[in-house]
């Protein structure tokens, strides 16, 4: 092989390269001494180092050297091998380094691996660290100048190198600076796509996605350096900020990369350092907030700038002197007044988050904030919305500005008189615009996809968002005028529901607004409820019924027995629809049955049992017995029993058992003749007691090793105790004769069960009943052994 290479490397380049490639393939499994010797190594490096060497031969020689470098061996032998190779002659020639980048990075990676395994101890008067430091300048040169080396390999090597550091020395700090600059260069966008990224068209989105993927490992590496050497990183960021501010030729891509790194720096700063602004952080944040950076008109730069401001809000929280700078950043052309709609909406969302974090400290600036937002609010109520206006994220629909305003106005530090004036100033134009659009829609009709629907939707969302700053105490006691204004706004919103009940997008937004009004108006909302509930009940699709029941559940939770009369009116309509929708055949099983329609029915079923549970536990079981509701009782009990015995959702089964327990307590007495509901006692004894409390737990699907199933089992045992206390001997006689004895339970265990049931130790009863059930299961398998 050696002779072939010597004879033919100048005569037949192809043959010599093929010989070297063949040799490379054998290196991994032959004795390393056969190739790492005085015959092969000088020849290989002669081919690499010779200025007139043909590229094909040089590449083949590099492949062989890499194979030798990557040969598996014990670390000390590997270090000796690495020192024996004349790689330093390659490092001495920058022009050659560029031609063999894989040799440079491969050698450095192997040296680093030895450092990781051996540490930094002396090995034969030398250390692998010295070899690494000799290679690093060439590695950095390759990183900057060569486009051949794969980015992933370089990042992996650099990450491993950073991990080996503990406290960086001065020379290592210089190396970290090179790595930081490499990261900055690599995360810069291609200027060719600048306009695409600004308007975010298809090409821009693709470029964003690709860069997001490219940046992942690079930014992880950056964060590692931030944690290892915060002073080095902060100084690097400071220089980038100074360069961006001082250079008239700073590009969009460079400024965006600078803010991206600054943002990531914020992720690594601990709470104490963030609060005090340790190191250069205070200067960096001050530069960020007080300076007018170039390129902020570009969507991409503006977005990352605002995110960075938000990232350092906790510093501002403990340094309130910077609040005016923060407000300026959010409220001027850098933020909410930015010409790009995406930036403006995002700024509104981030401003809302900032208000939630610092609302008490923002109150002194309330007048200034409201003045700064006045034109934005005016534009919101005068715009004719179209789908283009709504292309932002769902969480950034423009209403967040109103939420921020509401949160600030609702602070106790603001006087009730000012609160009332502020609310009126924002509610009045919103309601006026709503009425204008509604009148026009009534006259000309309303299509679900029309701009008018979008306009009404935005106004309702703004009203909803504004209300989030107020609670019932403020709106009904401290400043009743606010409650009156919101009640009037609710009446006007309900006009939309009355006029156009079938437009689902409006119906959903109105329902959400009603939820908020229930919270802040309290009992004063009662006069509006009949209209609300009647209109919402006009639709009977499963999803609509879910939304309706969620609202009713809120009313029950908040007002308890005060809604009894309202429930008696609406319960027949609810029961009629749900009994039909949730029939036994409503839930097909088998392949292909997990459809959207079936999932909606399952959600409706869950909400129904939550509704019945709330009624039972808020002393509203009398509603079931009202003259106009009683006819639905039997069908509902059958649905409840079926769910309690066999529903796949164990927690829902637990809910149904709890409903039965509460109804037993409410409707049954120790004396049979005084029961409120004729036939209910028999139903519980003959159906619920045996089917749910015995047969369902005997089934092998009832898994005692499951935590949720154990919770259900505890409720089933408790239900037996309740039945014994309320139904007495009627229950125990039937349960023993038709249940336990039918399951062939031995007489002595039946007697023990009765004794445990009479005692007041529910834990002992639960433990015994679990043992009884497990033994009955074994008996069914023919292997019962009682002890």
Automatic annotation (TrEMBL):
Residues 153-775 form the Exportin-T C-terminal domain. The keyword Membrane applies. tRNA nucleus export receptor which facilitates tRNA translocation across the nuclear pore complex. One of its GO terms (biological process) is tRNA re-export from nucleus. The keyword Ribonucleoprotein does not apply. GO terms for molecular function: small GTPase binding; tRNA binding. Signal peptide: none annotated. Residues 15-65 form the Exportin-1/Importin-beta-like domain. Belongs to the exportin family. It comes from the Eukaryota. GO terms for cellular component: cytoplasm; nuclear matrix; nuclear pore. This is Exportin-T. InterPro entries: ARM-like, ARM-type_fold, Exportin-1/Importin-b-like, Exportin-T_C, XPOT. It is found in: Cytoplasm; Nucleus. Keywords: Cytoplasm, Membrane, Nucleus, RNA-binding, Transmembrane, Transport, tRNA-binding.
